[in-house]
Structures are given as structure tokens and as C-alpha cells.
Amino acid sequence: MNICYIYISTYRSKKSTKYRMVCEKRECDVSASGGSGCDELGNKGQDTIKEKEKEETCNGCGKVLTKKLSCPICLKRKMVSYFCTQECFKNSWKEHVVKIHEMWKDEEEEEKKKMDINRKPDEEEEKRKKLMEIIKKKLSPEHFDPTNRKYWKYDHHLKNFVNFAFTGNLRPWPISEINPVPEHIKKPDYAVSSIPESELKYKRKSDIYVNNEEEITKIREACVLGRKALDYAHSLVSVGVTTDEIDKKVHNFIIQNNAYPSTLNYYKFPKSCCTSVNEIVCHGIPDFRPLKNGDIINIDISVFFKGVHADLNETYFVGDIDKVSNEAKELVQTCYFSLMESIKKCKPGMLYKNIGNIIDSYVSKKGFSVVRTYSGHGVGKLFHTNPTIPHFKKNKAVGIMKPGHVFTIEPMINQGHFSDVLWPDKWTSATSDGKLSAQFEHTLLITEKGVEILTKRMEDSPSLGFDTKDDLYLA
User: Fold this and answer.
1) Is 126 within any annotated ligand binding site?
2) 287 in a known ligand binding site
3) PROSITE patterns given for it (predicted)?
């Protein structure tokens, strides 16, 4: 048998690095079907080439690497994952986590399940069944005790919180399965993969999209539907109702109107709306916790309809308004009117960074603070896009308002310090001191004459618990 010896030859240029297999004896063409030795070594060589090419390109943008920055988590696991710059690593982080890190977790959990099944001896099977029955009961909505973390490790959602130091009184509850979406509903690109590829492609651009008349008409329709969905959600808010119930009914309402709930599976968000109670700043995940008298709750609803998104939210009082503290009432009203004050100033030629100055100035006079972690954003064909609109003063927002711009303003106002803490579910944001937080949001259109609130409140919208009639012509 004629055995050949193959090595990998490297060819570098300014723009790229290429690899090919070369037979050391120069006696055969390794790319063709030679002797068995060539076949075997050739296959190994091809695998080596693929690995090397993977090492030479950026995991974020796909460009050829001139220098290599490694993901520290991948490095620990001895995985090939390089980036060209720190900025590229930062911009690609969410996508990288979903594609690589989450995949590892899923594989590890599957392995653990297999091991658990295989290592249970027959004599322990009865004990295991009894334990599972106890766990199931303890984690059921009827018997769940949020102060007892003993059984949290057995729940796919709660296991992340076992050792977490909460800043306030609110605790997570078990959550239900993801809501199904019929095949006929038009879906955004992330509905299956969870990664908004269209957003990522546009992310590196700095321009602000100008919508044409046809697109604006569609966005208007989506915003009207979003307003109806939010008003419906508001009508469901009462003592004893769970946020999971609200989420399911809102989901069905949106689906029945041939739309898709934009939050569902967006970077793996598991629900069809966000429900943020008391000290939760934003992105609360609906669960089986019943609402209590005196709570405040923000409901954030987004819909994808006719190929475009609408985004809006409001904060409501739960139950008897007399049970709500005066400071909580003032917080909610301050948040609402700070939003309205900023909207009144919007017009062509206004700098986006001035929105934060208006909101922060109004809020600070009332003794509250503005959250800095989250911002308003462009919306339309993409769920989140340029411009980025901070709500605090002296921010560095880029851009000038022009007719055709569609964006959200959505200030989050805290009773105490402006800082927030992210819960282990990687979505829920809570105030760092455990004090209350409120938020309001509208989707806006810049016109030739000024601004139009596309998600405006209607004459028959449920009352917020305070006078908003003076702003009805705007809101």
C-alpha cells in the first residue's frame, strides 16, 4: 500500500488566509480519490482546515481576523470563538449567548437527565415517584410558597434564583409553557430562532430610517391594535388575577386579530407581554403570582402586524386605590406627565438627546430618579433600531428628528436610586434598593408640523386613576 503524508500549507495575503492540503511526497493529488492512506489523511486534513478557517474569522461580523480576542467563557471550555474587536464582541453578545452558551446548557441538561434516569436503581423508584409528587404539589400555583426556596431547584425557571439576593419583597413564581402561535400568523424573523437577524444586520448602521407613506399607514394600524390590546389588558387587572392569566388572554387577543406578540421568543423571552410589578423596573416575566391590593403593575405590549411593530406600555394601580400609597400615586403620575412633557417638545429639527433633559428635569423636581440602563428606540419594520433615546440628562444620544421617523419614548422612574439589578432570568430588572418603579411608553411619528402619538389613548380607554383629559388631544 502506498501511504502518503499530508500537511496543511498556509497562504496569507493582506485580506485573507487560505489553507490547502499538500502531499509531502508529491506523489498524489490529495483532493482526488488516491490510495486509502490519502483518503483517510485527506479527510482529517479537511477537518483541520475547517477548524483553522473558523479560527481565522470573527465570530461576530465574519471578517478575517487581524488580531484575536477570545470569549472568556468559550476559552474556559476550550472552544474556538474569536472576535475582531471589543465593540464587535459587545454588539454580538446576545446572539453569541443564544447560539453558543445556551446550546451548551441545553446539552448539559439533557446529559444530566439521561444520567439521572440511568442511575436510579429499581428499589429507589418508588421513593423517587413520591418525591416528584411532593415537588409537583409544592410548585403548583395553589400551594406555592414564595418564601420557601427548598423546591426551587426542581423548577426550570426558579432554579436560577436559589441563591439570588433579592433587593425588594417581590419573588418569582413558576411560569407556564410558552403560548402557541398558529401557522397562518405572519411572524418576525426571530419567532423560531429567537435571534432577530434583520436587527443585527442594521445594528452597525448609524442612520435613522425614514418611513414612507405606505409603511406609516401600516405602523398606524399596528399601533391602533396595540392600544386595543393594552386597554384590554388593563381591564383584566384586579386583585387575585395572575400575570400569567393576563398574558394568556392578551396573547389570544393579539392572535385573534391576526398579529404576533412581538416579545414572544425575542432573544428567548418566554411570554407574549411584559408585566412588571412594584419594584420591577421593566421586562418582568408573567407568572402565577396573584396581584395584591395596593400593587402597581406595568404592562408592556408590542404587536407585529402587517410586517411592522408597535410598542407601548402603561402603569396601573391594583384594587382599591386608597390602598395604594400616596408616594406610589405621585410616582406613577410623575412618570406619565414626564413622558407627555417630552412629547410636547418633539418636532422636526429637535435633537434626540434633549428628550432626556426634559424628562430628567421634570422628574428630579418631584424627588424621583430616572433609570439609565434602558432607552427609547426606533420601531417599525424592526422591533428595536436607531435612534437610541436615553431618558436622563446630559446623555450622548445621536440624531435629529425628521419627518418619517418613528420611535418610542418610555421613561422608567424610580422612587429611590436610579440604579437597577438584573434578575438571573436575564430579563427582569429590579430597583437596586427595592423601592417602587413606574413606566409609560408611546410610539411616536415625526410629521412635517410636529409629532403624532400613534399609540394614543382613546376616549373609552380605562382610567389611569388620575386626570389625563388635558393631554387627551396629545395622548
Assistant:
1) no
2) no
3) MAP_1, ZF_C6H2
